[in-house]
Amino acid sequence: MPIQNSPYHAFANLLSTSGHTVSPAELHGLLLGRSAAGAGFDHDGWLADATELFQSENEISDNVRNALIGLQEMVKGELTGDDMTVVLLLPSDDVPLAERAAALGEWCQGFLAGFGLNYRDNALSEEGKEVLQDLAAIAQVQDALEESDDGESDYMEVMEYLRVAPLLLFTETKKPAEAVAAKPSLH
Fold it and tell me: Which family does it belong to (predicted)?
């Protein structure tokens, strides 16, 4: 029996009761992708991208709007904080692996969409390009994870990787002037 009060479940419930068929994983991926691409943390831009993902003519409710802004504030804290960890909005571990793997694929698709829509410089390092290629591959292989110890292990490895990938890209896409100012001189 899945935990009914996990953040993922609560967000999924909020979205479905508001008439949105988007998964919280895809939404969170979109947010992290656009943030890692240097879109900044302007609420209006994020809400516009989220609304586009919803593909809904309906105005988003205050509850959903507040949840989206809260999610953005959390991501902003994770990307700009000192902890160097990102908490992924995915189903809890007691959900069948197939569902968690599907959510992982949705997260990757959302991330790639958010990154692609907002990244303008086209000057990623080889490592940055590899991260995007990895995410594209992960988005495709979620069906390959099987209910087994190996499948669980693979899932956990992929999750760990996805917790650092946005930070790597976020650091890389920061403006060079910011990066230069942040580096101590070697004199």
Answer: Belongs to the UPF0149 family.
